[in-house]
Amino acid sequence: xxxxxxxxxxxxxxxxxxxxxxxxxxxxxxxxxxxxxxxxxxxxxxxxxxxxxxxxxxxxxxxxxxxxxxxxxxxxxxxxxxxxxxxxxxxxxxxxxxxxxxxxxxxxxxxxxxxxxxxxxxxxxxxxxxxxxxxxxxxxxxxxxxxxxxxxxxxxxxxxxxxxxxxxxxxxxxxxxxxxxxxxxxxxxxxxxxxxxxxxxxxxxxxxxxxxxxxxxxxxxxxxxxxxxxxxxxxxxxxxxxxxxxxxxxxxxxxxxxxxxxxxxxxxxxxxxxxxxxxxxxxxxxxxxxxxxxxxxxxxxxxxxxxxxxxxxxxxxxxxxxxxxxxxxxxxxxxxxxxxxxxxxxxxxxxxxxxxxxxxx
Length: 361
Hints:
By secondary structure, the chain is α+β, with helices and mostly antiparallel strands. The protein has two domains: 203 residues, no CATH class; 114 residues, no CATH class. The chain is built from seven helices and 15 strands. The protein has a six-stranded antiparallel sheet with strand order 3-4-7-8-9-10, with helices on one face. Strands 6-5-15 form a three-stranded mixed sheet. The protein has a two-stranded antiparallel ribbon with strand order 1-2. α5 packs across α7.
């Protein structure tokens, strides 16, 4: 009798194993839309495996569940052409909170594509960065994908890369540089605040505007599509100015918006440059913390022999303007994300500093 029972147990275990193996093989391949709520997100080896885009991959024709968005004032990265998208799981929505922060649901994937315009006026893809809200621990995770020379796909790339490119800027001027693809730790330096990885770009205030060529506000479009809940009247939503829009915003507003997006992710409380005491958020109201007549605490040789972060009325003797106008390691600010001087951004900040009343002796 014991032998019969033992034999039955063995047969049951073998049968269960076979069923389990075949059951796994019959399951559909995990996609971005089928991430289990209790399973850690696993980054795929190739960008094409996510199914974000249809047709020729580098055309970036998004599927219905992947929505393109733009920022009122974006981060400058060597005149890169950037295409931004967000993927939301089926039935999930972004929640607008009372503080104006967008609460993205688990398994959200933020997709940021970087390309440059070559001398033949062709768009050449360089990298695609993914920021994923992992459903297993509610934390954001980051990964970079490097495009191949054939422009047919992008492969997971952790260690960063240096890519020689010759590109055209916004005015058609030619630049030759070595584009810096960040490693995952570089990404974390910019995205971490108080040791927590967070999105930088897709905030309510950065999305609160109408994209050129469209008629409806971007946040209102998200709400109409059912992507966003809790959105109040748009007049009650903070708006970050468009740094290029001199018709609707003042010089100060545009310069402050530019500094917010290009500097404040580090120069803020909890950011990577917190110890400097220089805080460049758009909402900053303390003139000293904004840098006016503030002595730097950690600039070292990067200060160029100057004494203050911002000297009102005198950009030529302001460390902030000096560091923006450099590409030298140890001097250039931001430290990451660019190898070329953004001449338009430098001019904007210089004009703002020059517009300030000079300090009386």
